[in-house]
Amino acid sequence: MCLAVPGAVLETWTKDGTMMARVDFGGVEKEVCCEFVPDIQVGEYTIVHVGFALQRLDERSAKETLANFERLGELEMEFGDAWARAAKEAGVPRPDMEIPE
Amino acid sequence: MSELINIGPTNLSAGAGLDFEGWTCPLPLRDSPNILMGHGGGGQMSAELIDHLFIPALGGRAGAESDSAVVELGGVRLAFSTDTFVVRPLFFPGGSIGHLAINGTVNDLAMSGAVPSYLSAGFVLEEGTELSVVGRIAQDMGDAARAAGVSVVTGDTKVVDAGHGDQVYVNTAGVGVVPEGVDIRPDRAAIDDVIIVSGPIGVHGIAIMSVREGLEFGTQMKTDSAALHPLVAEMIKVCPDLHVLRDPTRGGLGTSLNEIARTAGVGVRLVERSIPVPPDVANACAMLGLDPLYVANEGKLVAFVPREHADEVLAAMRAHPLGGGAAIIGECVSEHPGIVVTTTTFGGTRVVDMPLGEQLPRIC
Amino acid sequence: MKYIDEFNDPDLAKRLLDDIHATVTQPWALMEVCGGQTHSIIRHGIDQLIPEQIEMIHGPGCPVCVTPLELIDKALEIASRPDVIFCSFGDMLRVPGSGRDLFRVKSQGGDVRVVYSPLDALKLARENPDKEVVFFGIGFETTAPPNAMTVYQAKRLGVGNFSMLVSHVRVPPAIEAIMTSPTCRVQGFLAAGHVCSVMGTEEYPPLAAKFEVPIVVTGFEPLDILEGIRRTVGQLERSEHTVENAYGRVVLPEGNAAARALLEDVFQVTDRGWRGIGVIPDSGWRLADKYREFDAEYRFEVSDIDTEESTVCRSGEVLQGLIKPHECAAFGKECTPRNPLGATMVSSEGACAAYYLYRRLTLPDPVIRPAEAKEAAGV
To answer: On chain C, which terminus has fewer CB atoms closer than 10 Å, C or N?
Structure first.
């Protein structure tokens, strides 16, 4: 039920009273209906499921998520396992789960 | 294409008419009394149709399928192959059914190591088809034959009533001489063989899908249809003892590897991230929910090479225009005979099974 | 593809995996709700990479698997009619009804067509005014807005020869049903990311509170799945049970307002039978009365359906995570992807098909489940 892929909007127009967009998936282009994201702009990203744009993709949020994943490894490398072990023994959440300063 | 090999002379006159009552089959086709689309998909259902319906009737060895048959005639080893082309649409980015019809059979012969020489061409035309359509297909066939250095020396044309065909169906058959000392067939795949693919996969299938009604998407992909025997010749030069060659057409690389693994009784272990997939193919597959491993190719081959010659063969392939993107993708192992497994990018593993029929776009 | 490739990075995957390994101290049973998530887990071998203590129970989030047998049979009946062009997503073509599937119907002369989008079916209806065009409208909340829009357009454009056979299902009632089952073993949920991109996350806090289970809204790429597992296990280790959104790039708490508004207009909530599970109240959508003319169940009088489920098939128990596929006597014998007895063997992310495909190599003997081990240890 969930195969939806992100693409960049190249163009929007109206056909038969329905809002449409041409979306680029890394070189593959498809015409999709964007009635559910009517304010989508050219250059923005959206996820597409069965020929419909379902939601805008928040690029800033995506980058933040990836940055959080990177930070996981960094803490390990910087402090090693002892840190994680100590945190666990003390029963506190792992430091990397708090948003850093 | 799956073919009968080394079946010897068959005695078709010995009461083997199409008597449905008399049809007994070692393992009946369990699920359907009718032909289903899956039977043409190149996957498990096609294999079963051949193994349990055609081979018992015609004779020959079930399971020992390769692209072409190698027979001996007058002291000469000939590769002999046939293929029928029903592709829709007839014309697609980069080519047409005409190119496929020539290159397809040429490649089947090349997969036995033969030098393709002579082809036949049979046409089933639907009443009402435009002459310009047939003409263009014929022109494409001529062009492809000249490019491949083969001649179409005989042919046949039939016309069926409107509504009883689908514009144009083409069958080609071909022969070529297999050089001395060359013995290339699927059951020669051996443990420790290195598996090499000649270039990026999935190109033809995606090019076709992009113009298929209902899917239509924009892409730069054009079919990779090409005659591969010049590439094969270079490979044989550095390694006359190539074990297996296969052009993974319908059903894709995944199907071909499964067929070879089963025939030879070896396990195949792939390394997922080493399998070359062009970005357009990967993205189109992601959009439609398809696996590139099962998407058709028309100008690629996969080779099972004795380990000690793998580097030379790879170098020879890369030096040739048709093999520029060649890559080692895996090896034959003694574990899990008959099954194809791949490591995933993350170090997990999964089985690459034989698809049942044609791969369909999915929503889940 | 941008925003896919980055979430497939093996280095980052390793960091997430290391963190999960470092966090887990005891066995946990998690359920990923969505079939697409199951597919991703199997495809990337994720369940082989996470700690052994974490058991992934594959949830019933596969609309292919749970579409009621009766509706499949209705679809087959309608598709067999000579004046009908029956359109469906590819996923449904091989799902067995009582004795046959859509492929078989096609072989017997039915005009069955695979479409990528429901709009393609509407287009076919406009291009073939002399035929009845029926679309098989299955799916969870993710697919409901596209299907709703298609019916809405059909009405607006007056496409009289188009109708939809609707079988939509909703996730929250399914979670409720699973958690209230006395044999439930699930301790945490990976909620379906794309369902939530439409519906938002508001339906989940009451469930998390009522059943005291963590619910983490999770995406589909390997890093998304690992993050979902990481956060769920983290909560379990800390005895927390809240709703977290780990798929922030497409999920907002309120979801997609425009989509939800259309769903209100075109669909209405109904009881729905889930194949292998039974009727779950208010767990489905059907076309609202004002769109009745486009409802294929009304347009085509399909009665005298004698549903016949395989007596051997234990799909329902698999869907609820009560048994593992290989614990079913028919698994790999009478029931294979080639000859599926039930929908969980047909769908590419049905648990049985997934097990058949990759577990064939190392079929485990039935193992003591982590939760049982926990119980046995008196924890």
So the answer is: C
Give the phi and the psi of residue B344 in degrees, each rounded to 5.
Answer: -95, 170
Touching B (3+ Cβ pairs <8 A), the chains are A, C
> Measured between CB atoms, does B279 come within 8 Å of chain A?
yes
* Pairing outcome for strands B349-351 and B327-333: unpaired
Is 3.40.50.1370 the CATH number for A5-57? no
pLDDT score for C345: 83
- Position A77 scores a pLDDT of 59
Helix (H, G, I), strand (E, B) or coil at B241: coil
B284 vs A1, A28, A49: nearest CB: A28
Answer whether C5-62+181-191+201-245 and C65-170+255-299 agree in fold.
yes
B283: nearest CB among C1, C104, C358: C1
> Residue C18: its chain A contacts at CB < 8 A?
72-73, 76
Q: Tell me, what's the pLDDT at C375? A: 42
Q: Which residues of chain C does B339 touch, with a Cβ-Cβ cutoff of 8 Å?
A: 360-361
Q: Which residue of C has its CA nearest to A26?
A: C1
Q: Is the pLDDT of residue C372 over 60?
A: no
CATH of B74-182, one of 3.40.800.10, 3.40.50.720, 3.40.350.10, 3.30.1330.10: 3.30.1330.10
The CA distance from B272 to B291, in Å, is 12
Provide mean pLDDT across the span A77-87: 56
What would the CATH number be for the domain defined by B186-351?
A: 3.90.650.10
A75 close contact with C: CB closer than 8 A: no
Residue to mutate among A28, A31, A45, with most B CBs inside 10 A, is: A28
Strand order in the sheet with B76-85: B69-73, B76-85, B168-177, B115-126, B151-160
| C360 Cα to chain B: minimum distance (Å) | 8
Q: Which of C116, C120, C347 sits opposite B288 (nearest CB)?
A: C116
Question: In CATH, which of 3.40.50.11740, 3.40.50.1700, 3.50.30.10, 3.30.200.20 is domain C65-170+255-299?
Answer: 3.40.50.11740
Nearest to B270 by CA among B281, B286, B254: B254
CATH architecture classification, C5-62+181-191+201-245: 3-Layer(aba) Sandwich (3.40)
Q: Which residues of chain B does A30 touch, with a Cβ-Cβ cutoff of 8 Å?
A: 216-218, 287
Pick the closest to residue A26 from A56, A53, A1, A5 (CA basis). Answer: A5
**What pLDDT is stored for residue C199 in this prediction?**
97
Residue C21 pLDDT > 90: yes
Asked if C126 reaches chain A (Cβ–Cβ under 8 Å), the answer is no
**Where does chain C have alpha helices with state H?**
10-23, 35-44, 46-49, 63-66, 69-79, 102-107, 118-127, 144-157, 171-180, 193-199, 205-211, 222-237, 257-266, 296-299, 315-319, 351-359, 370-376
CA C349 to CA C353: how far, in whole Å?
A: 7
Predicted local distance difference test score (pLDDT) of residue C244? 97
Nearest CA in chain B to C12: B346
Asked if residue B89 has a cis previous peptide bond (ω within 30° of 0), the answer is yes
- Cα separation, C322 vs C181, in Å, equals 10
- pLDDT confidence of residue A83: 53
